[in-house]
């Protein structure tokens, strides 16, 4: 297939923190050694992006920036060292980028240049153009081929019948999947996920079920908990009442609990569910801490000691997790889109970004996705 790229393209640009995103016409990027150029088809509107651009989070980024996050696209032009990807290939563009010569230097390409001078330089010098654009130049190793025939093919031909937009649930699941793999969740185990009603935490429930676990979904939002229970026979629910003793007893009654994945947002820093979940873990239980909790917390130290608990912090995921998640989806075990309990709440073009942000603000519950289709 010919590698023809238009000379210019539309991209959203943030000139500085606190400035609104502007739609600009900019030169279309060209592939270089180690990269391909991707036509962006669909990308989730990142829930925290409006706050990040407004400077209301600890994340920083080089300016000007074209923001973005993990997207679904098609290879539009290959580089001189591309060996397997071809023009037209459907791909998932993973925005967790590690420096090639030092994988400890990491950025969240499109919105965070990390927390070290090296990571900030790495992003500023290389990766200031993210996926909220018609085209994006992408590192080869972050461009993951998807089996389009299997994922999007007709079920009568052995396909799973997903639309391109359905595939956007893959990136949403990838983050909690990293946490679940990090504590080696096994089929047949019981895991408590708390909270379980938000964007990433809801996806953690879907991922754990696909991995063969029984899920205890814990949270305060009883409407979403009920929906999870109604949709999945292997989901049990526990309401976070704030009473540690009572909630621990309720959890234990549903156990033994092998594992606990925490995805608490900052505002849940003082929530009692963290203590209840630790206290409910069985002997040799494992806990994965994935939430952004800015303060130090007291943990039930002697319970952890007496029960040989393993506690793991988890930032994002490993490269092997990406491949594994794609396999899980292509096998049909992990359901995407409507079949996976996702709902596309809105779909916006690049020039509708303000409406898109408003919709995103209103759609933060488990399974809700707002799309940008450049
Ligand atoms: N480790 C990583 O690599 C990584 C990557 C991405 C995101 N994260 C973090 O993961 C966390 C979860 O993401 P998300 O999209 O699921 O978050 P979210 O939608 O902001 O929040 C999840 C849930 O938190 C609960 N919650 C809110 N305030 C609470 C409070 N005061 N007390 C107790 N519960 C409260 C709510 O559930 P209920 O109302 O039902 O209680 C809400 O549905 C965030 O902190 C995010 O920054 C981590």
From TrEMBL:
Q: Gene3D superfamilies attached here?
A: Medium-chain alcohol dehydrogenases, catalytic domain, NAD(P)-binding Rossmann-like Domain
Record domain Alcohol dehydrogenase-like N-terminal: where: 33-146
Which organism is this entry from? Answer: Bionectria ochroleuca (Gliocladium roseum)
What Pfam families does the entry give? ADH_N, ADH_zinc_N
Q: Supply the SUPFAM superfamilies for this chain.
A: GroES-like, NAD(P)-binding Rossmann-fold domains
Annotated Alcohol dehydrogenase-like C-terminal domain ranges read 204-330
Q: What is this protein called?
A: Alcohol dehydrogenase N-terminal domain-containing protein
């Amino acid at each position: 297939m010919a590698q023809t790229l238009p000379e210019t393209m539309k991209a959203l640009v943030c000139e500085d923190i606190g400035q609104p995103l502007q739609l600009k016409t900019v030169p279309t990027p060209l592939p270089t050694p180690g990269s391909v150029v991707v036509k962006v088809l669909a990308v989730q509107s990142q829930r925290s992006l409006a706050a990040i651009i407004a400077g209301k989070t600890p994340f920083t980024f080089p300016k000007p920036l074209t923001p973005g996050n993990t997207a679904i696209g098609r290879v539009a032009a290959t580089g001189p060292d591309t060996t397997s990807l071809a023009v037209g290939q459907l791909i998932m563009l993973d925005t967790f980028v590690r420096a090639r010569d030092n994988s400890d230097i990491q950025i969240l390409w499109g919105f965070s240049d990390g927390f070290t001078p090296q990571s900030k330089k790495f992003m500023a010098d290389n990766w200031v153009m993210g996926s909220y654009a018609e085209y994006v130049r992408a590192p080869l190793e972050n461009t993951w081929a998807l089996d389009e025939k299997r994922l999007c093919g007709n079920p009568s031909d052995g396909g799973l019948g997903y639309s391109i937009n359905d595939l956007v649930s893959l990136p949403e699941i990838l983050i909690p999947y990293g946490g679940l793999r990090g504590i080696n969740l096994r089929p047949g185990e019981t895991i408590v996920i708390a909270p379980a009603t938000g964007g990433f935490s809801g996806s953690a429930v879907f991922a754990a079920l696909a991995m063969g676990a029984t899920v205890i979904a814990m949270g305060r939002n009883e409407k979403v908990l009920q929906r999870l229970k109604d949709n999945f026979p292997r989901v049990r629910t526990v309401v976070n009442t704030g009473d540690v003793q009572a909630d621990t007893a309720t959890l234990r009654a549903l156990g033994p609990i092998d594992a606990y994945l925490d995805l608490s947002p900052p505002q849940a820093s003082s929530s009692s569910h963290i203590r209840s979940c630790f206290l409910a873990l069985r002997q040799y239980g494992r806990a994965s801490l994935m939430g952004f909790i800015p303060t130090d917390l007291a943990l039930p130290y002697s319970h952890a000691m007496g029960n040989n608990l393993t506690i793991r912090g988890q930032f994002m995921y490993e490269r092997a997790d990406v491949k594994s998640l794609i396999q899980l989806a292509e096998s049909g075990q992990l359901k995407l889109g409507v079949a996976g309990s996702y709902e596309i709440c809105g779909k916006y073009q690049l020039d509708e970004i303000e409406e898109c942000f408003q919709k995103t603000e209103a759609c933060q519950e488990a399974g809700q996705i707002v799309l940008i289709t450049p």
